Amino acid sequence: HYVNFFSNPDAWRIIRNTLFLGVYSLVWCFPFPIIFALALNEVTRTRFKKFVQTISYMPHFLSAVVVCGMLVSFLSPIRGIINTIITMFGGEAINFLSTPAWFRTIYVASEVWQTLGWGAIVYLAAISNVDPQYYEAAKLDGANRWQQVWHVTLPGLKAVIAINLITTVGAILATNTELILLLYTPATYDVADVIGTYTYRLGILEGQYSYTTAAGLFTAIIGFGFTYAANKISNKLTGYGLW
Q1: Whole-angstrom Cα distance, residue 58 to residue 142?
Q2: How confident is the model at residue 34 (pLDDT cuts 50, 70, 90)?
Q3: What local confidence, expressed as pLDDT, does residue 194 receive?
Q4: pLDDT at 33 over 90
Q5: Is the pLDDT of residue 18 over 90?
Q6: In sequence order, which residues have a C-beta less than 8 Å from that of residue 229 and are 6 or more positions away?
Q7: Distance of alpha carbon 27 from the chain centroid
Q8: Which of 116, 115, 119, 107 minimizes the C-alpha distance to 24?
Q9: Which of 164, 173, 171, 159 is nearest to 239 (CA)?
Q10: Cβ within 8 Å of residue 73, ≥6 positions away
């Protein structure tokens, strides 16, 4: 099965797409919840803070079907709000969902939108556990708000950031298959087809269960390798890890 998989002319394209989407999600989806949590922590108006938290958490509870339906509506080349704005300024409408150059941007943006608020919960909980005496000591030393964030808040989040980074790196090949299946089209296969969609088509639709199980096991083995490497590096640099 592995010989058949790697001799398949589509194999390296599928692996490449999976890695690209995984790395892009890591680069954008991982830091934004941290930044968002730090920004929310600086908000002093309780009602406004709760309102922003509620609005940012809600996308996490929307199903992928709803999210994709909203994207299709927003990005429609005929009635979509994005193309309406483009044409208002004299530009030509773009069929975003059928343009390969736009697929990865749309995928990553939807992932950021759905995970931003929910991912910030963990960091806000960790920030609330930072001893207030550290902030008082920093103020006495003349530290401004930015310096307090850099020297007090972020060190207090180091363990949580390290653990989340390890698990995120380990899941770098575990792309959001459901979202991709709902978004991609034959026109975007070259940049959107990943291991998850490939195993779905061949395993569920064509009944090649043994072959696609081998492909899925390959993903799990690589994921474990990434997790192990990230854990070793984290233990060495920060002193925190999964084991």
Answers
A1: 39
A2: very high
A3: 92
A4: yes
A5: yes
A6: 169
A7: 8
A8: 107
A9: 159
A10: 79, 80
